[in-house]
Design a protein that fits this description.
Elements lengths: L5 H14 L4 H30 L15 H8 L6 E5 L4 H7 L4 E6 L2 H16 L2 H8 L4 H11 L5 H13 L7 H17 L4 H8 L3 H9 L2 H18 L8 H5 L7 H12 L7 H8 L13 H12 L3 E5 L2 H6 L7 E3 L9 H14 L6 E6 L7 H4 L4 E2 L12 E6 L5 E2 L12 H12 L1 H9 L6 H10 L6 H5 L5 H8 L2 E2 L4 E6 L12 H7 E8 L2 H14 L5 E5 L17 E7 L8 H11 E13 L10 H19 L17 E10 L11 E9 L3
Parallel strand pairs: 1-2, 1-4, 2-3, 4-5, 10-11, 10-13, 11-12, 13-14
Antiparallel strand pairs: 5-7, 6-7, 8-9, 14-16, 15-16
Length: 688
């Protein structure tokens, strides 16, 4: 057999990295290894975020900005008239925006990131280019100490206090901060151990891109070995140093080869020698003049100096909400990096609500990156964002990038609220005991009821739980608040909302009375249980919205329900919060709901699900374990007439298209290791 050509070696290595190819024996052995270390990984996950946040305000996490500004400029088209709000990070991209003359508000809740950005700002103003480049490209800390007395008077007090010590303790900008330290371990320790030290030597010697690619292809086993280690051990064990929280990491853990794909992109789709300064800088420990960020290029230095002297950069230590609320100039671009990966839907919705008040209504754009395959939060979904072409991204750590114009946005953003439902541990325990023992006392309760069929089953189940219903289910129905965060409010108001299986009307309390009056002309709580509707009516009266909201006791699967609800084709939104899984005739329920909706109206379901979004991505061993777990969940919930939703139960409805499907695990009260899948599933009516 003739030896493989360089092109064939490259193609083979890239295929194995992209497809996560392993021979069956290696796959089986490594799956067993991962299964054995899973308890350790789980234990570390419990302290991961706490450990990461220990670094805040003690050191900076990001020594370089880890987003490629080339993509930003392609969609921003910045001018001196723009006002950008963004995360400071290490200041690299902040200064990149400044080159264009735009006003930039850079915010960070880590004061050390502000200190790093501010030092660069002051150095640009006070120094000449050669000294600036020597310090921030080559980490000439001796020179920094010499010029520091000239820089210090222009620093804010917190930044000066940080650098008073930092000029002595920080030995290299490239390998400082937690992410720089981790990068040193990866590129200067592990790479040589795996026989990949030649990459740094070739970069130092100025090799050609073609030769470096060929040499990498010739070291297939080393590349694949370090890729496996990075994906399966370092991704979970080192991401706290890289500033990646658990919530963000969870968005991509269904992909078994995240970092293998990054390696494939960096070595085979970017020019590490002449263009990809992100990785060449870490490999070398410094930037070369022809392969560095724009703010380190001489041709841009005068423009940065001018605009910084003109006060174009404002640094804010605090939350982005602080910076948004205190902004006095309309924001044309909100460049939010990946920080919304860190946040639950509640915080994302809150941030968007504040942004909408301060954005330029005509030119405003919202731009973000994510580790997820798609838009990862329902509040972001309503922005109708466009995916940004990332084929030239030199970082490769973000799976999708999005930009949205707010000019023609039809959805309104309002903050949701929390109300206290907790009646105490004893009450929860009693309600939980009633649920668990229901099969034993069901015959006795049922014999006292006048209703029949499904209504009898539901009333028997809820009759003696109604007082503690909301308190107990706050810790059980995890997708209910997620559904209400996802609820699309229509600009202009006048909405009609039906909450099917709305029970106690708890969903109303996620919206303030002011928001309800602003956006709704009619709300109906429809349920089959008279006992729960008693609580709902009391809640409506307590909120003072009897003129808008009412209760209807009816079976939504019956055709007669249409005679007691608003006219067909007039409803904007129908919600089913943990009720769809308890409805025997689900097709009839959806058919009636579809008739009620106007074109473009939505059906939002929050419920228990049999599968997660990415069960099919699991390895064969873990897929079998997951299948056994789902059978256990299905059997246990069926005892209480809850039938976990399978994919086929949500497909094939005429006139409806799926616009949102997000599932996640949530614990059961008093049973923390019993975590079924919850989810929010939203469909839109496409016909009249």
């Amino acid at each position: 057999m003739p030896p493989k050509t360089s092109a064939e070696k490259e193609a083979r290595l890239r295929r194995k990295l992209v497809n996560n190819e392993l021979n069956p024996i290696a796959d089986a052995i490594l799956s067993i290894v991962l299964l054995c270390v899973t308890p350790v990984i789980w234990a570390f996950a419990q302290i991961h975020d706490k450990l990461m946040f220990k670094f805040l305000n003690k050191t900076y996490i990001y020594n370089v900005s880890w987003e490629d500004p080339r993509m930003d400029h392609r969609v921003f088209n910045l001018t001196e008239k723009d006002h950008i709000i963004t995360i400071a990070s290490a200041g690299c991209n902040v200064l990149d925006y400044i080159i264009e003359g735009s006003m930039v508000t850079a915010v960070d809740f880590n004061s050390c990131q502000i200190a790093l950005t501010e030092l660069k700002k002051v150095a640009i103003i006070q120094l000449e280019f050669d000294a600036f480049f020597e310090i921030f490209s080559k980490s000439n800390m001796k020179l920094l100490k010499e010029v520091y007395p000239k820089l210090r008077p222009m620093l804010s007090k917190p930044s000066a206090e940080f650098w008073d010590e930092g000029v002595d303790t920080i030995k290299s900008f490239m390998y400082s901060g937690t992410s720089g330290t981790m990068s040193y371990f990866l590129f200067r320790v592990l790479f040589p151990l795996f026989g990949l030290g030649f990459i740094r030597k070739e970069l130092e010697q100025g090799t050609t891109s073609e030769k470096l690619t060929q040499m990498v292809s010739n070291n297939s086993y080393a590349i694949r070995g370090i890729a496996w280690l990075m994906d399966n051990i370092m991704l979970r064990g080192g991401c706290c140093l890289a500033g990646v929280p658990e919530r963000q990491m969870a968005l991509g853990l269904h992909r078994p080869n995240n970092l293998a794909l990054v390696i494939e992109r960096v070595f085979f789709k970017t020019d590490l020698v002449h263009d990809n300064y992100f990785y060449s800088g870490y490999l070398l420990g410094y930037y070369k003049p022809d392969n560095c960020p724009r703010y380190l290029k001489k041709e841009h230095f005068a423009a940065m100096k001018k605009y910084l002297k003109d006060g174009k950069l404002k640094l804010v230590h605090g939350t982005i909400l602080d910076a948004i609320d205190n902004s006095t100039v309309p924001i044309t671009v909100a460049s939010l990096l990946d920080h919304m990966d860190w946040m639950p839907d509640r915080m994302i919705n809150e941030e968007l609500t504040h942004l909408m008040r301060k954005m330029d209504p005509v030119n405003g754009k919202i731009f973000w990156r994510t580790f997820a395959d798609n838009v990862h939060a329902a509040p972001l979904n309503w922005l109708n964002a466009t995916r940004v072409d990332d084929t030239d991204d030199r970082v490769g750590m973000y799976w999708t990038t999005w930009i949205a114009s707010i000019k023609d946005l039809q959805i309104a953003y309002e903050e949701r609220i929390d109300t206290k439902q907790d009646l105490g541990m004893i009450n929860k325990a009693i309600t939980g005991l009633k649920m668990v023992t229901f099969p034993f006392w069901k015959p006795l309760v049922s014999s006292t009821l006048k209703v029949s069929g499904h209504a009898k089953d539901m009333e028997a189940f809820y009759k003696y739980q109604k007082e503690g219903y909301d308190s107990f289910r706050e810790g059980l129905l995890h997708a209910r608040p997620a559904l209400m965060e996802a609820f699309p409010l229509k600009k202009g108001g006048g909405m009609v909302w039906i909450d099917i299986g709305g029970g106690t009307a708890r969903n109303l309390e996620f919206l303030s009375v002011e928001v309800i009056r602003k956006y709704f002309k009619e709300i109906i709580i429809c349920d089959i249980s008279a006992s729960l509707l008693e609580i709902a009516q009391k809640r409506i009266i307590a909120m003072g919205i009897q003129d808008i909201a009412r209760v209807v006791e009816h079976d939504v699967t019956q055709a007669s329900v249409l005679s007691v609800l608003p006219a067909a084709g007039t409803v904007d939104c129908i919600t089913m919060s943990y009720s769809f899984s308890m409805i025997p005739d689900q097709k009839a329920a959806i058919a009636n709901a579809t008739k009620l909706l106007k074109k473009g109206g939505h059906i939002g379901i929050a419920d228990f699900f049999l599968k997660g979004n990415y069960d099919d991505c699991l390895s064969p061993l873990f897929r079998r374990i997951r299948a056994a777990e789902s059978i256990l969940h299905k059997s246990w919930f069926a005892l209480d007439h809850v039938h976990l939703l399978a994919d086929q139960q949500l497909e094939g409805f005429d006139g409806l298209e799926t616009v949102w499907d997000n599932r996640f695990r949530g614990a059961i009260p008093f049973m923390p290791f019993f975590q079924p899948y919850h989810g929010v599933y939203i469909m839109r009516k496409t016909i009249k």
